[in-house]
Specification:
The protein is of the alpha+beta class and 187 residues long. 27% of the residues lie in helices and 43% in strands. This is Lipocalin-like domain-containing protein.
Length: 187
Amino acid sequence: MKKKQTKALLYSLVAVLAIFLAACGKQSQSKSNESASFKNEPTTSKTSDVKSTVLKGDGFWYLVGSINGKSNSGMEAIAFDSDTGKATMYNVDKYYMSYGNAQKANALNKEGTVNYSFKQNSNNQTVITLSGKMSGVPFDETLTVKTKTRGKNKNKTLNISGYKAVRDVDSDKTNIVFVRAYAPKTK
């Protein structure tokens, strides 16, 4: 009788282990598929990686409350120029896949051009500093990068990836996402 109970227990453990291993395999497969659809997403939030990611391509990034947040006054976008060390700030009506697309749509409402720099703070977080004058008024803003984020914009079905960040303007800190848009992956 004990042999039968032992065998039954052993078979049950093997079955549970097989189910567990099968579930782990499916999870890692779905994660690799997710990664493929966001091939342009940031790799880490280290200062050197953030800097190279932000300056890659046309350097066109959005500062918004959330990936699918809505605003009656539009959203802020920044075009970083790696050659000049300048960032031009715009107000746009929605996400565009690139600076060129926003320009073609005549959707760039220029707010001003400032200098930018990347540094690491004492907590090993990347801090992007934007400073200069906007409409003749001194302007200083910092973006402290926290973690990576990604999602899909429901209105335009664009892939969105970038960072969760804290924006500090005149000691007024706000949680935002600092992101860029990509075309959805075609199959």
